[in-house]
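Follow-up to my post from last week.
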Amino acid sequence: MPDLGPMIQILLNSIAGGTLIALVAVGFNLVFNTTKVFHMAHGALYILGASACQFFLGVFGMGGNFGLLLAGLCGIFTAVLTGCLVERLAYFPLYKSHARETIALITSLGVYFFIVHSIAILRNGDTPIALTDREVSILPIGAGRLTDIQAVQIGIGLLTLGALFFFSRSRFYLKIRAVSDNPVVAQKFGIPLTQYRLLAIAIGSALAAESAALRAAEVGIDPHSGLQVTLIASVAVIVGGTRSLAGTVVVSFLLALIQNTTDSFQSAIWKEILTYLLLLATLLFFREGLLTSKTRIEEQS
Amino acid sequence: MNWWNFLFTCEIYIMLVLASNLAFGQAGQASFAQGAFFGAGAYTAALLMHNYDWHLFAAMPVAMVENAFLGWVLGVLAVRTRGLYFTLASIAVQSVIAGIIYNADWLTKGSYGLAIEHPLRIGLWQVQGSSVAYSLIGAFFLLMFWFFNRWLRHTPFLRTVNCMREDELGSVSIGKNPAYFKIWVNVLTGALMAVPAALYASERGFLSPEAFSLEQSILIVSMMLLGSIGGNKTGWLIGGAVFFVALPELVRWLPFGSDITGANFQMILYSLCLIFAARIHPDFFSLSQKNFTNR
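User reply:
Got it. Predicted complex:
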C-alpha cells in the first residue's frame, strides 16, 4: 500500500487554505455582482483588516484568546466601515455617471493603492503583519497533522460559510440578487438600491477581514500581497461562474488543492504562475465558468 | 538633480506612453500588460548585450520581434475576451511575465537583478556613462516616434482601429475584420515598446525585476489617463508622462521623516491622480460592450 501520509497532509492543508480563500472569494463575488465593479480594493480591505487587528491587539494589550477575538472583531469592523466609505465615495458616483466597467476597475485600483500605501505610512514600514508568535500545538489526524490554528481556521471558516448558506436562502440575498440582475427594475419594485449595495459591500469586507485575521494568526501577511489575494479570489469567482456562490466556494477549495500540490511537488515559485494560467485558460475556453448552467446569449454580460 | 537624467527618463516614458496608447487609447483595449512588454523588451536586449556582446542597435530589433510575439499573444486574448475580461487577462499576462522574470534565476538572475556589462559605443563615440549622449539618442528615437505617430494617425489602418473602438459592428458592416486589427495593433504596440525598453536597459546598465511589475503598468496607464483628458492628443499624452516623471522629484522636496514615507506618499498621489482622472473623464475611450467576433 502506498504511503498516504503526504496526500492526507496536502488534503488537510488544502481544506484550511481553501476555507480562507473561499471567504475572500465569496465576499468578492457579492461585491462584484452587486456593484458590477471589479473590486480590486478588496485586497486592500483584506490588508486593512489584518493590520487593524494588529493595531487593536496592541491597544488592548490583552493576551490570550479573548483579546485576539476582540481585536479580530474590531479589525472586521474597521474594514466594514472603510468598505462602506469606498462604496459611497468611489463606487456609487461611478454607477450614477454610468461609467464603464474598465473605468470602475481603474478607480478601484486607485482605491487599492490609496489604502495600502496609507496603511504603510501609518504602520511606518513594510514588515509582515502577524498577530501572535506563540507556540502551536499539533493535532494528529489520521496520517496527517493539523496545527491548532489551522483547526480554528477551519472551524470559524466553515461556521461562516454555513451562515452564508442560510443568508443565501434569505430574502436579503434575494434582494441583492435582484439589484445585481437589474438595478433599475429592482428600484422600481421598491428595493432601496443604495442600502443593498452597502449591505453587499459590508458583508464582502467583513468576510475579507475575517479571512485576513485568521491568516495573520497563522503566518505573517505581506502588506503588499493584497492584489494577489484579490486576483486569486477573482479566479475562484470567474472559474466557478460569476453568479454562483456555491461554485465560488468549490473552486476556492480546488485552487487551494492546486496550490498545495504544486507547493509540495514543484518549487513554490510556480504556484502563482499556475493560478494565473488557470485564469487565462478559463477566460479563453470557459467564459461562463465551470459550474454554471447555460444562459442565453442575450443574458450574458 | 541631474537634468539630463531627468530628460532621458521623460523620453523613455513618453515613448512608452505613445506606443501603448495605440492599443489602449486608439483601439480602446484596456490592457495592464505594459510593464510586461517593457520588462520583456528590456531583458531581451540586456541578455543579448550582456551574454553575446551584441550592439544595442542589433539587440533592439530582436527585442522588437520578441515583443511583437508577446503582442500577438495579447492580441489573440483581445479577440477571445472582451471588456473587463480582457483587462483581467492582460493582468494575468503581466503577472505571468513578471513572475517568470522574477523566478527564472538561471536566465535573469531573478531578484538580484541583472547587471549589464556592455559599454555602448557608436563608432568612436563612447556613449556609456554620459547622460547627455543618452538624452540625445533618446531624443532622436523620440522624434522618430513623434513622426511615426503623426503619420499613423492619418493612415486607413488607424482609422479602422478607431472605428472598431467606437462601433465594432459598424466596422464589421464595412467589411473590416476586427480580429485582424486587434491583433495587429497589439503587435505594433508591443514592437514599439521594445525601443524605449532596450534604451533603458542600455542606459541603466542594471535591471531589477521590481521595475516591471504591475505597478509599472499602472504608472503608464495613469500617464495615458491624464493625457486622455485632452482627448487623446499627443501633446496631452506627453504632458501626462512628464507630470508623472516629475512628481517624485517634487515629492523629494517635501519634508518627510524617511524615504519610505516619501515613497508611499508618492504612491498615494499617483492613486489620487488615477481616481480623479477616471472621475473627471469617465468616457476617456469608448470600449465596445459587445465583441461581435466572439459569437
